[in-house]
Amino acid sequence: MNAPKAFLALVLLLVLAFTSGFDLIFRIAYALGLVLLVGLYLTRTNLSGLLLRREARGSRWQVGHMLEEKFTITNRSLLPKIWLELRDESTLPGHRASAVVTIPGHDTRSWIVRTECRRRGRYTLGPLTVAASDPFGLFQREGTVLDTRQVVVYPRV
Predict the structure, then answer these.
(1) SS3 for 127?
(2) 109 and 37, same structural domain?
(3) Do 40 and 64 reside in the same domain of the chain?
(4) How far apart are CA 72 and CA 108, in angstroms?
(5) 21-59 confidence digits (pLDDT tens)
(6) Measured between alpha carbons, how far is 116 from 26 in angstroms, rounded to an integer?
(7) Based on the structure, what is the number of domains in the chain?
(8) Are residues 74 and 26 in the same domain?
(9) Where are the alpha helices (DSSP H) in the chain?
């Protein structure tokens, strides 16, 4: 169920509750309303207070060498950030830097991605899209980190 359907279900439950006067339907409507409010709040706050950094050593490699990139994400807020999806839009073939992370409050997560340079050419590392969702999967919010970097892969000597 997505957010518009959940809001429609809430409206229908409230109409049904007021027309029938049945207490159980009121309780179900209140619970659904609470789930919607909590989900909306968590989605709104899940991207705030994040600091994302990516570092690659050098900007030139040869075919067959390993490009190493370090990602660091810092949560500067008190609340934990759950189910953050990081999607990398790099053009380097075989570069798999996307991840799903959960970060406690005031904590940092780091990971290293190693990619074998298979084809010569000029490639772009980045941008990185961060998507946050609530635990119920009703709402989603995205932000893009426009930190890009050009790298060159030379032919094997």
Answers:
(1) coil
(2) no
(3) no
(4) 7
(5) 889 999 999 999 999 999 999 888 888 999 999 998 889
(6) 59
(7) 2
(8) no
(9) 3-20, 23-46
pLDDT digits (tens, 9 = 90+) for 67-108: 999 999 999 999 899 889 999 999 999 999 999 999 999 999
Q: Looking at residue 1, what is its pLDDT?
A: 56
The alpha carbon torsion through 44, 135, 142, 85 (nearest 10 deg) reads 140
Distance CA 92, CA 121 (A): 9
Do 67 and 108 fall into the same domain? yes
- pLDDT level of residue 12 (50, 70, 90 thresholds): very high
Q: How far apart are the first and last CA of the chain?
A: 56
Domain that holds residue 54: 49-154
Q: Based on C-alpha coordinates, what's the Rg of the chain?
A: 22
